[in-house]
Amino acid sequence: MIGKVLLVDDEAHITRNLEKVIPWEMLGLTVAGVAKNGVEALQQMEQEAINLLLCDIRMPVMDGLELVRQVREREIPCDIIMLSGYQDFAYTRAAIQYGVNDYVLKPIPYDELTGVIARVMSNQRNKQKQLFEEQQKLGRMIDLASEKILYDIIMDYTDFSGSHWLFSGDEQQLRLQQFVMIVLDLDVSSEKTKDWRDWSDKERKLWNFAVCNVLREKLQSNGLHHAVIQTRDGEWCVLIESDKEMAFDTAVIRAWAEMLLTAVRNHIKLSLNAGIYRHFVRVEELSDAFKLVQMGMQLTPAANLITYYPLEQERSAGADQAFWVTAEKLISAVKRGDAASVGSEAENISQQLMLLNESNSSRVKPLLHFFVLHLMREMKEMAVFTREQEELLWRRLDLRFGIKDLLSFIQQVTCAVSERSMDKKKQSENSMAEAKIFLDRNLYRDISVEEAATHVGLSTSYFSLLFKQTYGETFIEYVTRQRMERAKSLLAESQKSVAQIAKEVGYAERRYFTKVFMKYTGDNPTDYRSKFQSQGKDFVADAEEESS
């Protein structure tokens, strides 16, 4: 990119010589204009962005020093080289105070001036590059933080409340956004995915990670602002931010889904199905919309690779939904290890199926099949089954046996899991205690929920659920709160710089740390330090006065 230079001198022959002698093109600059004094220069700078100002000190109407003072006062971004026939140190000192980059004496040594311009512009471009990289990094950090929060919202682990301190800064912009929701799912019951079921947990984790990367890269390369959230093994929720003026164009959104399915198929060799929510989704609607699409995909045979939900015409939709609500209650009871609720909800499912069988017997078997499949996937996330038990369950499910057998199977699995969950309660408590110690020891670095879950041997979704149940707040809420409390102590009690403290509590970028700190405390770090350290001095002074 070519920069622009403005030449300011009341002697016309000097500006003419500068235009002709200095190799501007080689320096990556073009002369945008000339001015005879500071007033003319300011007028031009208000109309056009200037990268370099080359000006004399002594000029009529407005001299060079006043021009520089005005430029800095108005915060016009440009570098400045002063030209002067005076060697008086007072001029040099004033120029330095106003932030002049360099000072060249007349008569102008053009070779020396060319070198000075080259150095100043090289420094300017390096700073611009560094600033761009920092802005990009900050943008990625904010996006990553938003993605973590979106995961908690989708999974219904947190309320998106305007009063919540975690949403009081950049993340508050989420409230103003609307998204296209595309849920991508691996049909783990199909013949095509038996290999997936045979893979080890480590292999599946690597493939899940690979799918996330492919989806993010494809969306980014197409200029779509997005979040990719893995909700469980073999299932991903893609959110694409949409312009508020954009209409919900099913053809465009279908093309996005096809693009993602093709990318995963070509790069990962996996065939996924896509469920698209039929309307734009606001943040407060994410959890309900996700559950609706997930329910539709679980209860509908995958006849099409891409399906919109809710279906426009859906037989027995009310009965299906009632069944699914009961099934979710049963699974929730299983996760809690609540044997009484498991038995109660299993009885409710039996009654619903009998009523449904009277009106639409052909629908009962698919419902049971998909529920068992859903139950198995949820239990897989909890690491309830051994490898042998999982293989046995898959074989039984592949047989697609009768309704009574399926009911018996549901009761056996849920009861067994419930008993296992009760036995694992102490183990879960120990895992969460171990996770807390791990987090407290690693607050100084950017630690992810995936890493914390792996450390205690749990899946990300089950770890997140247990963490919220144990500590009453989500993973990101806990980590951020602990970091901010540590930062408050360091600011109040130490003389470390804000940048040092930011790194010590896990933020590589000071400006992002400042944003989060202001969300949490209402003060920027410098004001917080001044407030509390001055209070400390007043306390010492009062103590000394009382003792005297």
UniProtKB/TrEMBL annotation:
Residues 529-548 are annotated as: Disordered. The modification 4-aspartylphosphate is found at D56. Keywords: Cytoplasm, DNA-binding, Phosphoprotein, Transcription, Transcription regulation, Two-component regulatory system. GO terms for cellular component: cytoplasm. It comes from the Bacteria. Residues 4-121 form the Response regulatory domain. Residues 433-531 form the HTH araC/xylS-type domain. GO terms for biological process: phosphorelay signal transduction system. GO terms for molecular function: DNA-binding transcription factor activity; sequence-specific DNA binding. It comes from Paenibacillus pinisoli. The keyword DNA-binding applies. This is Response regulator.
